[in-house]
What does this fold into?
Amino acid sequence: MVSRKYEQRLRAESAERTRRRILDALYQRLSEAPTEPVSIDRVAKLAGVARPTVYQVFGSRAGLFEALGADLLYRGGFAQMLQEAAQPDARDGLRGAIRGVVRIYAANIDVVRALSSMARLDAAAAGGAIRRMEEGRLTGAADLAGRLAEQGWLRSEVSVERATDLLWLLTSFEGVDLLHTGRSRAPEEIADTLIAAAEQSLLQ
It folds into this structure.
């Protein structure tokens, strides 16, 4: 007789596979048709599930996009970026944070661009995902600016508030995307440019 724990594990694995298929279908849809509205029916069809299953797994349309936002961070190496940003020397943390942010954006740049556009056009659905990502980025910028000040690396005329604003600006998706699409820069080149700008603007 199959044990209850084994059955529970099988159900959990099946649920995770279904969740993954739905998210992968949403990635595919945003990559293939970034300017078109996202239809849950279409996502469900691509994932090979019924439309109600999407809502059973994610709770709502907004829940689906919030899960996508979290998955974008995970796929892009968010945990590694946090480690790099937390290096004891805040200057190394600055460099690591910028490289990590660029890496996250570059990993799925077409999907992030589509999601950002959707957040403006369909705030009720996609807005929460972008808002959560941006709130986290602002918190990280403020923390890093504070550490730079505490360690005496900020230029005398640069306040923590101004440093936070500059870091917020330099780590924006829009800036990375402009250098990628408008200047055809590779992620490493983009990171080098943004790090140089940050160091010249902030550090003494």
Notes: The chain has two domains: 4-59, 72-202. The first helix runs from residue 4 to 32. The radius of gyration is 20 Å.
